[in-house]
Write a structure and sequence with these properties.
With 205 residues, the protein is mostly helical. It has helices at 7-29, 33-59, 62-78, 89-110, 135-142, 145-153, 157-168, 173-180, 184-202.
Length: 205
């Protein structure tokens, strides 16, 4: 089973995506939209699996996650000219995806008779990497996926966002803070509180 890219592989993937995104922006600005759309397909290929995995943890099922990811990619392409080529594509895309997922959650809560989904997509199991068994990864590995999903979704919004980006998506604290529009110190506070809550709910020492 393949986990989330990490270490040098993840860094290479992120660098590749930033290069492709810069290409897409340049082609759009040059009026070469057919070429831009084709090049954008490479960007989708690089990030779609990771994006669906992250969206599954926000939304709880594959169908909603797929729709959210499609919406996010549409928004990314529509606003491609606002992408800053001196900034990582990773943080910019993640911010758009997170906001798209949160909008769907808000819409779901406003829908009469709507109930939270209670099943994660099967390939969300790939989301927890198996290298370096940190206490947080052991906590996830030793709990059932339904318990983890429910516990994570029950976290306060900011704590949930920070936990998902840092421990499921494996973003660096700097990138996660940039994606969520907060400073690193605030992110660490939210992450500490999220882990403390999860340990309590999942029965970890």
């Amino acid at each position: 089973m393949t986990g989330v890219p990490s270490g040098p592989h993840r860094a290479t993937q992120a660098d590749d995506a930033s290069v492709v995104a810069a290409d897409v922006k340049g082609l759009i600005e040059a009026g070469r939209r057919d070429e831009a759309a084709e090049r954008f397909g490479d960007l989708v290929t690089l990030w779609q699996r990771r994006a669906v995995r992250l969206a599954c943890y926000y939304l709880g099922n594959a169908a909603d996650a797929d729709e959210a990811v499609q919406d996010a990619f549409v928004k990314v392409y529509a606003h491609m000219t606002s992408f800053r080529v001196d900034q990582p594509f990773d943080a910019w895309f993640t911010r758009i995806l997170v906001n798209t997922c949160l909008d769907r959650l808000k819409s779901r809560r406003r829908t009469p008779g709507a109930s939270p989904a209670d099943v994660l997509a099967a390939d969300a199991l790939d989301a927890v990497p198996s290298h370096e068994p940190s206490p947080e990864r052991r906590l996830l590995a030793e709990s059932s996926w339904r318990e983890v999903a429910e516990a994570v979704r029950a976290l306060p919004e900011r704590q949930r966002d920070v936990f998902l980006l840092c421990h499921i998506d494996e973003a660096s604290p700097r990138d996660a803070a940039e994606s969520l529009g907060m400073n690193a110190a605030t992110l660490r506070v939210h992450l500490f509180r999220a882990l403390r809550r999860l340990r309590g709910v999942l029965g970890a020492p």
